[in-house]
Write a structure and sequence with these properties.
The complex is a heterotrimer of chains A (251), B (229) and C (119). Helix content of chain A is 86%, strand content 0%. With 251 residues, chain A is an all-alpha fold. Chain C has 5 helices and 2 strands, in the order αααββαα. Chain C is elongated. The chains are: A mainly alpha (251), B alpha/beta (229), C mainly alpha (119). The A-B interface holds A 3, 6-7, 10-11, 13-14, 75-79, 81-86, 181, 247-251 and B 12-13, 46, 49-53, 67-69, 71-72, 76, 78, 80-86, 95, 98-100.
């Protein structure tokens, strides 16, 4: 499976360079703003960074899904499906490499934002006070202290729901390929199935653990439960995708 | 019996590609799968390679269903180019080496040389003829038990075809079996043991090439013309 | 080598090898290529190649030394009889062909002498 993952990374390597280059450019802008003391440049570059982070995360998910779709559609798929690997390994490698990419990207972006933030705080004392003020406001508003477990559970939920988006997409694409092979509207059907599965996911979540408003005092518990349900979804859609590929789908 | 098909059927929405093929492929022989485009040869090979799942019927490799174990020993070469765009000739070799234990890297280098390709050539910039040669080099550099070559001579110039036939003969060992599908019958006539004629998704004629020739007093090419006229 | 589609391949290859023996390209007792080498040389199926050697061994044109390979016979008289046999069939074909054109034996001989003089 490691070898499969290696090639999944290779397939998607080019876009990582682009992302890296773009972040580099934004950072250059930021540093220029700091050094030249141009507040609007700093603000603009930070905004770019935030939006770009979100954009990049979406893009990473999109790319993993697109790669999967292409692997089912194009002739390069032969390279993958002729190798002596079970579909479980093949799909597993895709999910794992996507997961690793998003975690690494998340850490990288977080690090960049944190470093930029630290630079700003070091440079402008005024911001330190703003930060303290903000935290006080937040604490008062929600009448709680932000615990470590809150952060952990939010991050866990973010990662698992991001991965589940990918596996649900894999499942949708595979399901529609099983019946429609290469028909033109297969993409549309895949999308409908994807939406449908997400609706089911939400329904199951609310049935199982209720609504978020019931958990205001212990949001971390809610997020933890939701992460667990999400993980179950990931496993089910992963197994379903692999099973269909193994038994039903012809490339 | 290295490959055994029993009443194999593959139906698509608007056509039946394979319509009840029963075939026994024996070890150590070179088979020609003959027939025009669309007759079902490619689908048959893809089923044996594990890329296409049959609608009904059975197919076994050495008695076992097609799967991970058979893929370790079966080397399939499709008609279409299939290497990833970002790969160079060298990358393609490394990929094969990573996934196929029977891949011989030295042999690959030899064949790349013989086909007049360069290790640094990018797969996506290769002309169709060179891309075809790359496919052959990668496939035949494996020491597989069963080789399935779909139209290996297509898009190859006449001089290079000789090289390819030589390369195919070089992998023909007692413990290796080769299936070649082609509509270039006369090029293959001398090297094959058996000729299997596929028409409209089923086997029209199957026999030892020499027996067919002597029995009917015709060359395989002439028999071909009779069957598909 | 160009192959005739109406005659079995192994027959044609044996004929070619016999020719090489008769005109000295292959010496008496010389080692013949292995089955695989033969297949590659003539671009034929390896099984056909082994069959070729089997047939030739039956005709006692060659023999196999276990573990070492296949060798041309060392029997000079065998070589002579191959030569005569091949010549005989060429002549048979020639005579039949010429008879079909209406040549008599005397006309044939005259024509042959003429041809050799002007060669």
């Amino acid at each position: 499976m490691l070898k499969l993952m290696k090639y999944e990374f290779r397939k998607q390597a080019f876009s990582k360079f682009i992302i890296l280059a773009l972040v580099g450019l934004i950072e250059l802008l930021f540093f220029f703003g700091v050094v030249a003391d141009r507040e609007n440049v700093i603000v603009t570059s930070m905004m770019f960074l935030f939006f770009f982070t979100f954009g990049a995360m979406f893009f990473l998910a999109f790319e993993s899904i697109l790669t999967f779709s292409n692997d089912l559609k194009q002739k390069c798929s032969y390279m993958l499906f002729l190798t002596p690997n079970t579909s479980y390994s093949i799909v597993g490698a895709k999910v794992l490499s996507a997961g690793i990419q998003i975690i690494l990207a998340g850490i990288a972006f977080f690090a960049v934002i944190a470093i930029d933030g630290a630079i700003l705080i070091a440079k402008y004392d005024a911001i330190e006070q703003v930060k303290k003020l903000l935290l006080e406001i937040v604490n008062d508003m929600f009448n709680m202290n932000i615990k470590f477990s809150d952060i952990v559970s939010v991050v866990a939920l973010m990662i698992t729901s991001w991965i589940s988006t990918i596996t649900i997409a894999f499942f949708s694409i595979t399901l529609s390929t099983t019946f429609l092979a290469d028909k033109k509207f297969k993409g549309f059907v895949s999308f409908i199935i994807f939406l449908g599965l997400n609706v089911i996911y939400n329904k199951i979540t609310s049935l199982a653990i209720g609504d978020v408003s019931e958990y205001l005092s212990g949001l971390d518990i809610y997020f933890m439960w939701q992460s667990i349900i999400t993980v179950c979804f990931i496993i089910v859609t992963y197994l379903g995708t692999a099973w269909m590929l193994e038994k039903k789908v012809s490339v | 019996m290295i490959l055994q098909c029993n009443d194999l059927v593959k139906k698509y929405l608007n056509k039946t590609a394979v319509n009840g093929i029963s075939l026994d492929i024996e070890k150590g022989r070179i088979y020609a799968l003959l027939g025009p485009n669309g007759s079902g040869k490619t689908t048959l090979m893809k089923i044996a390679a594990g890329l296409v799942k049959p609608s009904s019927g059975t197919i076994t490799y050495k008695g076992n269903p097609i799967g991970v174990e058979s893929k370790k020993r079966v080397a399939y070469m499709s008609t279409e180019p299939f290497f990833y765009n970002y790969m160079t000739v060298q990358d393609a070799g490394k990929y094969y080496q990573d996934f196929f234990e029977d891949f011989d890297a030295k042999r690959y280098e030899e064949l790349i040389d013989r086909m007049e390709l360069g290790m640094k050539d990018k797969a996506k910039t290769l002309s169709s003829g060179l891309a075809a040669k790359l496919k052959i080099a990668a496939t035949l550099a494996r020491k597989a038990e069963l080789y399935m070559l779909d139209e290996p001579l297509n898009g190859i110039d006449i001089i290079a075809r000789e090289k390819i036939i030589t390369t195919i003969l070089e992998v023909a060992r007692e413990d290796a079996t080769i299936l070649i599908s082609s509509h270039l019958v006369d090029e293959l006539e001398k090297i094959i043991d058996n000729a299997v004629f596929i028409k409209n998704g089923s086997v029209a004629l199957n026999g030892d090439a020499e027996d067919l020739r002597v029995g009917r007093g015709k060359s395989i090419v002439e028999i071909y013309k009779e069957i598909y006229a | 080598m160009e192959f005739n589609n109406n005659i079995p391949i192994y027959v044609q290859v044996i004929h070619d090898i016999k020719k090489d023996m008769v005109n000295g390209v292959l010496a008496l007792g010389e080692k013949l290529p292995s089955g695989r080498e033969l297949a590659l040389k003539y671009k034929i199926n390896p099984n056909t190649a082994s069959r070729i050697y089997k047939e030739m061994e039956t005709e006692e044109i060659c023999y196999t030394k276990r573990g070492l390979g296949t060798y041309v016979t060392e029997d000079m008289s065998k070589l002579k009889s191959i030569r005569e046999e091949m010549a005989g069939s060429l002549l048979d074909n020639f005579i039949e062909g010429m008879e079909q054109l209406g040549f008599t034996k005397e006309e044939l001989i005259q024509l042959l002498e003429y041809k050799y003089e002007t060669k």
